[in-house]
């Protein structure tokens, strides 16, 4: 006589299911091709997006970046981000990220707002990558706007090793979408712009041993950047995938 099958008891409490990662998304109507964190097809698992209303790329990067991150004014300004994180957790998310590497500035504020892990910025990968390299090598960071990536952002992401930073702010196709919210994108042209920036960075800084794409709009061009430089290329999607896998562990299988 076989034992009866155990019944599964499912627990509810929110409206939608199957996701682990919640993504706080900058508001914008520009295209987000596969690879961008705002495109759900970028991941082989479900994610849940929440658009933070009123926060464009410019407001998030430039306006918040110009404020004192320890001030009451800053905390009040990022209120919609904190509320968005709470909303995602209420919908069952087990970890929270954002769509902007510059959100490193409010990493600690997001952590205080929710009881699940938060990884606000792709820049949090930098300390790990730097320790993969020999002492004479440097991590190269390609960012949306080099002038806006301050020491405050680096410190908030835990970056203490020297890095090489270049921006794509002078690339017309990238700027038209990321900054001006143009609703169409010439993919090949944007890819070529990013490749040129990355290649010049490596040519001018031969000590660069790996590349990190800070902006979540840059991963669609990661393969082309690697083809052009021959270097390991890291981006936001690696961080999202790593944390997702930690929050959705599966049993190992195979021969013993």
SSE topology:
Blueprint: E1 21-26, E2 47-52, H1 57-63, H2 72-77, H3 79-90, E3 95-98, H4 107-113, E4 118-119, H5 126-130, E5 138-143, H6 151-156, E6 163-167, H7 172-178, H8 187-204, E7 208-213, H9 222-229, E8 233-234, H10 236-247
Parallel strand pairs: 1-2, 1-3, 3-4, 5-6, 5-7, 7-8
Helix pairs in contact: 8-9
Please explain how this structure is put together.
This protein has 256 residues and is α/β, with parallel strands linked by helices. Helices cover 34% and strands 14% of the residues. The chain is built from 10 helices and 8 strands. It has helices spanning 57-63, 72-77, 79-90, 107-113, 126-130, 151-156, 172-178, 187-204, 222-229, 236-247, and strands at 21-26, 47-52, 95-98, 118-119, 138-143, 163-167, 208-213, 233-234. The protein has a 4-stranded parallel β-sheet. The chain has a 4-stranded parallel β-sheet with strand order 6-5-7-8. Helix 4 (107-113) links the parallel strand 3 and strand 4 (118-119). Helix 8 (187-204) runs parallel beside helix 9 (222-229). The longest helix is centred in the last third of the chain and has 18 residues, at 187-204. It is globular. The model has no long low-confidence stretch (mean pLDDT 95).
